[in-house]
What does this fold into?
Amino acid sequence: MNKFNIKNIDTNSSTSLVLFHCGHEKCNPSHSFGPAIRPHYLFHFVLDGCGKYYTNNRVFNLKKGQGFLIIPGETTYYEADKTNPWEYCWIGFDGVDSKKILKNCGMDDKNLIYTDKSEGKLAKSLMQLIDIYEQGNSNEYTVLSQLYLCFSHMYNKPMNVHKVINVSHLEKALSYIHNNYVYNIEVTDIANHVGIDRTYLYKIFKEHKYMSPLQYLNNYRLNAAKQLLIETDLHITEILYSCGYKNPSAFYKQFKKSVNMTPVAYRDNNRI
It folds into this structure.
């Protein structure tokens, strides 16, 4: 089988993902297609029966619950079984994110065969996608959302659930700090907002930010104060209260300890 460098001239190169066509067919015995090349990715999923897929001098025997990927520009040929012909559905797609999506699903130009582990969810979602597409009365976001749902059932990237939960808690804590640092918040307030105890919050910050929640809060307030000192003419008293400091003495003490100069000197040295 040969490979030809073919490009779909109608494809917007900046599009993340686009569905060109999809369909479903219950094949007759020995029904075949090809040899042919495609300008975009084409994925077939076997709903029933079996058949063979030929590409690059390789032959794959496929059955119900398996799928095969056709790479753009590659010559391929596939044929239904003589006695138990396959029934399949397909999606033709492309876009700048296609390779990444396929890789996350465990497929690329070296791994063309997919074995379903979704317990029927993929087949159901693919058929729903075909139905939405053929009705022709849905907008592009509805179609793409259903296509992404199909890929979500194929997703094969191992997930560290503990890490995902930690990152989710961290993002929620950071968002709270970034939007409330001007107020008199403390670490307990952050932990309560996230819904975890202070010890667990401390562990998450040390793991991902290499500092405690209090250190992060103080650094964020200090950096906000530095920015206001350089970019505005606000009085220093306004700045310290705008950055969550309770009183001038605490602000001056922390600022000098961190920057090794007073706020006034910092403003004079850094303003253009």
About this structure: The radius of gyration is 29 Å. Residues 161-180 form the longest helix (20 residues). The chain has two domains: 18-154, 161-270.
